[in-house]
Amino acid sequence: ELGIRIPRPLGHGPSRFIPEKETIQVGNEDAMMHALFADSFATLGRLDNVTLVMVFHPQYLESFLKTQHYLLQMDGPLPLHYRHYIGIMAAARHQCSYLVNLHVNDFLHVGGDPKWLNGLENAPQKLQNLGELNKMLAHRPWLITKEHIEQLLKTEENSWSLAELIHAVVLLTHYHSLASFTFGCGISPEIDCEGGHTFRPPSVSNYCICDITNGYHGVDDIHASPTASMPSMESVCEVEALMEKMKQLQECRDEEEASQEEMATRFEREKRESMFVCSSEDEESAPTRDVSRHFEDTSYGYKDFSRHGMHVPTFRVQDYSWEDHGYSLVNRLYPDVGQLLDEKFHIAYNLTYNTMAMHKDVDTSMLRRAIWNYIHCMFGIRYDDYDYGEINQLLDRSFKVYIKTVVCTPEKTTKRMYDSFWRQFEHSEKVHVNLLLVEARMQAELLYALRAITRYMT
């Protein structure tokens, strides 16, 4: 009546992929979740949709929030507005307008110069110099060399200190992988964010024209997802078949062990095969506001490392690992962060409720390790003690397509991809898969950057 336009939410619930009634409802949470919600609200000033989806796994969420809070708000080498600007640069590489918009607000809130938001060329030269490292970390981290590190540390008046560079690298990898989580779980923008609301009036039947144009035909339609519907015989068989394979692999492991040469061959085969797993070209990536002004070289994207005659030498974890090398380097130059990251990696990798779909008391360690090592294999990272033959046994093609898309080109992830893998599994289990993808990706990027920094230092 007063002519005030009232925003209405465009989506239903925190995720486009998970029906709202299957997410954890605020008000029905237990004491631990309630404390996490309170912490998240106190830190961010809101209960964001990432938190509302991650809370399926409260132990992980607690570690995640603690790490993110430390990186953005506690004492550290970089000033606060630099931290949020680096978050914007990293999220923009994957066209993740959801994260870009959040950090634009935070950047202005801590006193950042609005001019910087007109494009990277308006930011200080020191931040512009980070652009090259940002794009390589996001898309082809195996190309990073000690020369790239040297350029950042040795440019006269705009040089970075080692401690500042470690802080920047951790922020870049954190936001590249958080973009993977945002797209992989179909996170919806909050009502007050761009793309999160409409001003069109509600119609009589309780949903508006904009819902129809967005493909929503009413509440019931939104909830009809393959996972929510009655279990089909085919998808039940999928779970049984996967469990049977795990059992057989365990038996083979107990009986015989492949030679080192055979293990190396299997790794190379899997690395080669991972190049032929690609998301179909006709997949539409969600339309996003133009965020490309926050980075240079928009045509630079993910390319498999063995294409076009380029051969990238295998990165052997035995020569440079997070546990033995990366952790201590980070902790030395940016105290406590190594510890926080280590805990977060550890929780994601070891998280289990010993369930698989409708089955209880299942040891899922073999499956978790296959997912983690497959991601590292896509980045050319090899574990000498792992039999890469297990990956093809445990991860089917639709699952590999989802993994590779979420990790390498997250902006191309679609609901169809999310629905097509592990059809009989709970949404919480699919969110768990995303946590593994996020942490394995972050660790792979960090390993390449930290190895280059170590080489520069020595």
TrEMBL record:
Keywords: Cytoplasm, Oxidoreductase
Gene3D superfamilies: AhpD-like
Keyword Oxidoreductase: yes
SUPFAM superfamilies: AhpD-like
A GO-annotated cellular component: cytoplasm
GO annotation, biological process: cellular response to L-leucine; cellular response to leucine starvation; negative regulation of TORC1 signaling; positive regulation of macroautophagy; regulation of response to reactive oxygen species
Keyword match Manganese: no
Primary localization class, coarse: cytoplasm
Molecular functions per Gene Ontology: L-leucine binding; oxidoreductase activity, acting on peroxide as acceptor
Pfam families associated with the record: PA26
Protein's name according to its UniProt entry: SESN1 protein
